[in-house]
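Subject: mismatched residue count in predicted assembly?

I count 565 residues in my input, but I want to confirm that the predicted structure covers every chain. Input:
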Amino acid sequence: MQTGLDPELKTAPTSQPAGVADAAPRAPRETALLAEHVTKEFRVGRKKRPVKAINNVSLRIERGEIYGVLGANGSGKSTLIRLFSTLLTLDSGTAEIFGKDVQRDEMAVKQMINRVSVDAAFFKKLSPFENLAYAAKLYGMPAASARTEAIRILARLGISEKRLGRPLEQMSRGMQQKVAIARALLTSPILLLMDEPTTGLDPRSKLEVQAFVEELRDTHDATIVLTTHDMAEAERLCDRIGIIDGGRIVVEDTPDHLKALVASDHGLEPTMENVFMTFTGKSLDDDLDEEKSEDEEEE
Amino acid sequence: MAMLTRDLRASMAFVERNFNLTKRYWGWEVAWLIYSVAGALSVTLIGHSLGDEQLLLVLVIGTIFWSYLAIVFEFIGESVQWERWEGTLEYTFMAPIRRHAQLLGAALYAVIFGMIHTLFVLAVLVAFFELDLSQANFATAIAFTLLGTVSFIGIGIAASILPLMYVERGAQMVFVLQSVLLLVSGVYYSVEILPGWMQFLSQFSPATYVLDGVRAGLIEGASVGDLLDDVWPLLIMALVFIPAGLWAFGRAERYAKRTGKLKRVG
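Triage response: the counts match. Full output below for your records.
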């Protein structure tokens, strides 16, 4: 399969693909996240078969950027987020968040980040406010300012103050995910790790969450790493996209450059679907078949 | 000082969270309280039916103090498992808090909850049997309860690493450990009637010494000074179990992060 990649660097060619307008040169910004040759392996199944979940991944994300990690299920997106969240240790390589090593300076890194995961993980019997107050206290926020801030963020996400006292289990999945986003923003992280934040949401909730991420990009100095398998979402929200496959970032660039690349080098229609299939060498159907066989193997 | 304040605030976050959970699950709390009272009465009525005041007191003390120690152990030992069930474990481990602050919060709430729960059961038993505690040395009972609490917090912390390391079986292991402690600690009988190997195990359970000491204090009016043979094992356990438990928890956390066991499974 031809990917158009430098086989050593595994990055998109730096030359401008046809059809992409020249961008004005700009000064490099502060590095928010720097990962170099990160590898993570797990041993799975009864035979403890080693599986490389992340394979020699290097990334540099600038402050204020929304970086998308686009990949199929099982490609390593969530593992990558967990490595940056200090929830997993690196087997090899290094990862720094605003200059702090995720392993050596774990506590400092934890102060700077927060995460939204695919499942809105809460104490479901507790109310949104009880959950948020608990989270705020863990991050050293005073209760009074936590309440004010929680009300403000949730109001922006369409959840009124009167709903803050009811158990979360009585809320829809979409509402719970909005509370999860509020929890992450409450602690004012300078790096927000969003792991498939819209997966499983109804179309309206999905659009609301996406609009909120856009607002964060436009009005806050937020750096966001967003994993998704929704190509339209990646294209809409992300400044740059890295496509991950089998634990490797197989290509990364702006959505426009990636699309232009498949058009110029492969003569394909410039869509993110074609970008994904070109650089992973798989169709979505292939992915489903592969997942199915993996599930069967696990069973 | 700032770090200490921050740790205490984090500990109080766990206390407040657990209080809110108790409030939200109030129906279950009432059900468990009724079950505890019924269980305590069922056991102690055996002593009452035999007309043996001494046996009645032995059973009452065994029931009451085991109930308290078991709550302390359960609340701390299962704290990781609860979070795994709720799906919040990763968020707690991602928060910028030191692990001892987290475990102190879990322990603090366990002690408060255990005290309230146990005092209620005690009040019912005292009213039901009109127990004669005129000879009791309450200072001894309180001293042994405090020492036993510290030891049980240490064992609870050590037990809580099991659900961290073993996603599915960890909670089962904690339950088995609690059952073994119940069996070998002489809760309803003297440990002297146990087979030799069980008596050997009973030496390592703080409950053995707590129950010995409390019984001697409340039934015979013994002072702490009279019971030094029960005091020093508890002191050693208190001094060893908590640091050992915290150290083991730290190791287990690193293992969980290396192997991906913090991820919610089931």
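Confidence is low (pLDDT under 50) at residues 1-23, 288-299 of chain A. Marking this ticket as 'not a bug'.
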